[in-house]
Design goal:
single chain, 283 residues, globular
């Protein structure tokens, strides 16, 4: 389906969030993207009973597909996803390329080969849980007396020290809900834990075949997650469209404006290289 022909001809960008971080927390990133794109996002994954968290995340990917078909009127979209959201974008694009203009993965490296087999084994045995983010999610504090207390708490944590101050403030405001005791995390701890426990181990298969739409990868230069996952399968899938930004796995929160600029650059590079009039797709 072609975009509306009346006024706004900016490409439609549909963003999918990382595990534990509802879309509203990315407000500053979305504002930085708005000059170039019409930005939409699934508000939160994993909290709708129609799309339960199951091994391999197929229902969560279906939630994204349904959002594209229903809320975006099946308009071909640029699917951008951070971590969890990148994998869901990849799965949705593979299943429904007609809904997808291209995919941009934000620190969502494809796990393949022996790493995928190790992931499968760790899920079957549970032996790898203490070394994965699932262990931290299981113990995560969920309640604070107010927004200021939550912001103080997270600003002292190593994973949050490099965050853009406005992004941290938005996490404290939009990543929580009011309760009779103060503020609580809006993203349920049990849901976050189950998502980590059910990571797909078969996504490497997508890198073995020609992917139906262009895929780009943007990674954090200090990302532990990308180092652990390796990049061979991702590089094969992205066909050279690999870009880097200073920061950790959470670089969209650390440098939202620089992330937006690199997303725009990645989109333009892939879109021009994969123009329908060209016979090949390469940078």
């Amino acid at each position: 389906m072609n975009p509306p022909s009346d006024v706004d001809q900016r490409p439609l960008l549909v963003f999918s969030h990382a595990n534990g971080f509802p879309a509203a927390v990315y407000r500053k990133l979305f504002q930085s993207l708005e000059p170039a794109f019409r930005v939409r996002a699934v508000p939160v994954f994993g909290h709708d009973a129609r799309y339960p968290v199951r091994d391999g995340w197929k229902p969560l990917a279906q939630q994204l597909v349904d959002y594209l078909q229903r809320d975006c009127h099946a308009e071909s979209a640029v699917l951008v996803g951070h971590s969890l959201g990148g994998y869901l974008s990849l799965m949705a694009a593979h299943a429904h390329p007609e809904l997808t203009r291209q995919v941009i993965l934000l620190d969502s490296p494809v796990v393949a080969g022996w790493r995928a087999r190790l992931l499968w084994l760790s899920k079957r045995t549970g032996l790898g849980e203490r070394f994965s983010p699932a262990a931290a999610a299981k113990r995560r504090r969920i309640q604070w007396p107010d927004v200021a207390a939550m912001q103080t708490h997270f600003s002292s944590k190593p994973a949050f020290r490099q965050w853009d101050p406005e992004m941290l403030q938005d996490y404290s405001r939009f990543g929580t809900t009011a309760t009779q005791h103060g503020r609580a995390l809006a993203f349920a701890r049990e849901v976050e834990y189950r998502i980590y426990k059910t990571l797909p181990h078969q996504l490497g298969q997508l890198a073995r075949m020609p992917f139906p739409v262009p895929v780009s990868f943007i990674g954090g230069r200090s990302s532990r997650e990308t180092r652990m996952a390796g990049l061979q399968a991702t590089q094969r899938l992205a066909q050279g469209r690999v870009h880097w930004l200073d920061g950790s796995h959470l670089f969209p929160f650390e440098s939202p404006q620089a992330t937006a600029r690199l997303i725009e650059h990645a989109f333009e590079a892939a879109d021009s290289a994969c123009h329908p009039g060209l016979k090949t797709c390469s940078l």
